[in-house]
Design a protein that fits this description.
mainly alpha; 3-stranded mixed sheet; two-stranded antiparallel ribbon
Length: 249
């Protein structure tokens, strides 16, 4: 991904970069139901520590690239949602901060320590937190498109809170966030804010397949995110049809 606003071009989009989740929907269940959040952390479905042996041969390997892509992803997500709110006559307040961490318990949400190998939006504090070592590993294993999905998904949870969206079941919130992440990326491509590079859509599909719930996970269980097929369908429904497909109205 790259930035069409003149930033460095990188693997996924050569436009205005934005990263999203690809690992477990809200990989840490970081989603608010309107009260100070008590998230129920979920482990990602990706390898705990993808290393050099699993690195993709697409040039997305260095920590410096990761940092640049992640920073660009945050900026592009903020720009996208600011524009969407303005089009509706509303003012958008960006997510307050994005926090990297390296150790379990280093960051907490609503009094609950966040585990390793995770990413989450925490409404109690209005921040996105992510295990930087795990995220770099996923970046190397899947590609930079993963970052755009990863951040896009978590940022969508922040938008849900701002819109006052609440569902009875976690899976409804998670699949909508996947759709919103798809709309963000798809709209940005259509508006020439992002430019897809070869293999980017395959990276997105690969990441979505990696973050589905385990077989046999009840859809109504607390923390359920959806099967790989459900998550892929939700993401690409938003990607192809924009926010109208995501049930925000």
């Amino acid at each position: 991904m790259g930035d069409s606003a003149g930033r460095r071009r990188s693997g996924l989009f050569a436009g205005l970069l934005v990263a999203v989740v690809v690992a477990a929907g809200c990989m840490a269940g970081g989603l608010d139901q309107g009260e100070p959040q008590q998230p129920g952390p979920q482990q990602s479905r990706l390898p705990d520590s993808p290393g050099a042996r699993t690195t993709r041969a697409d040039g997305t390997t260095s920590v410096a690239e990761f940092k640049q892509d992640f920073s660009d992803a945050v900026g592009s997500a903020e720009d996208y949602w600011t524009a969407q709110f303005q089009a509706s006559g509303k003012r958008f307040q960006p997510v307050r901060r994005v926090v990297p961490y390296t150790r379990e318990g280093e960051v907490s949400c609503g009094g609950q320590a966040l585990p390793r190998n995770n990413a989450v939006y925490c409404s109690a504090g209005d921040f996105i937190a992510y295990d930087v070592n795990w995220s770099v590993g996923a970046f190397r294993q899947i590609g930079d498109a993963f970052l755009f999905y990863l951040l896009g998904h978590e940022y969508a949870h922040g938008v849900q809170v701002r819109l006052g969206i609440r569902y009875n079941f976690t899976i409804q919130q998670e699949l909508q966030a996947d759709c919103m992440a798809g709309a963000y990326i798809g709209d940005s491509v259509r508006n020439d804010r992002l430019t897809l590079q070869d293999g980017d859509l395959d990276e997105l599909r690969e990441g979505l397949l990696a973050v589905g719930d385990d077989p046999g996970q009840p859809w109504f269980a607390e923390g359920a995110h959806g099967t790989a097929e459900q998550r892929t369908d939700s993401f690409f429904r938003g990607y192809e049809n924009a926010l109208d497909a995501c049930g925000l109205g």
